Amino acid sequence: MPEGMPRIGTSDLDVHPLSLGGNVFGWTADEAESHRVLDAFVDGGGDFVDTADVYSAWSAGGAGISETIIGSWLAKPGRRDRVVLATKVGKKADRTGLAADTIRAAVDESLQRLRTDRIDLYWAHADDPATPQEETLGAFDELVRAGKVRAIGASNFTGPRLQQALETSRREGFASYAALQNEYSLVEREEYERDAADVVAANGLAAVPYYALASGFLTGKYRPGQLAESQRQAGASKYLDTPRGPRVLAALDEVAAAHGVEVATVALAWLRRQPTVVAPIASARTTGQLPALLAALELELSDEELAALERASR
User: Fold this and answer.
1) Helices 31-43 and 65-74: crossing angle, nearest 10°?
2) Which residues are part of the catalytic machinery?
3) Which of 291 and 233 is assigned the larger pLDDT?
4) Is the pTM of this model over 0.85?
């Protein structure tokens, strides 16, 4: 990996360029396996963990289970200071939207579940047009000043709404969004690049893309006539019905073979080389899935390989 660690936008948070997604904890990975994944991720060089208060509302454990599992792991000696911890507010059924009272209540609940005194990066999980940005950012600013939160970020914001938020923070003297978490991958490029990338770049922010592996499609396990059985099959297999999907897989296969790595490694290595991207988010429900993700921290693609993937993904 290149010397030095990238900074998350305008924050003072430095991370290795890969984020471990916590959406599977308590859903497809039980507590014991989740702890093994977290241990292996940190031992393998990772230090950036991303979750949300709503994870995993769709599981038997319900909303908050991911934070609870991460919290029990963080409580082990020496764990908390080894990771940059991110969580989100705004989509949990009893804490929807970005009103000030919602944010104040949600952060305390997340801190309790996470068993920590601070959240390093606190995301607005989705834009809330019904609440004035001054109210939302004022509440986030309170949390930063109180030391409960070190930095804030926006997720699922359009470029224009993000720009408005940044201008509001400057005008009011509030803490400002340091990063944007929107969908972005080799098979989902247009919306981010057209709508938000310029705002992120112009303001010195960082992109921390979710669905970096397109619900598993970019792992290579979903192919024509070969649909792996998983919770994400429907989301991943839809890319097979487009001209781009198989074309991207073919390009990934060629680069992966040249380096002796897995397809997912190449997909993540491509993404972290894109302008504005600091750390793609990827999930692992078992420790066996981690090596392919962690290998992206080391893989350096040539200009020719980047160009081939660029052509395939257009």
Assistant:
1) 60
2) 55
3) 291
4) yes
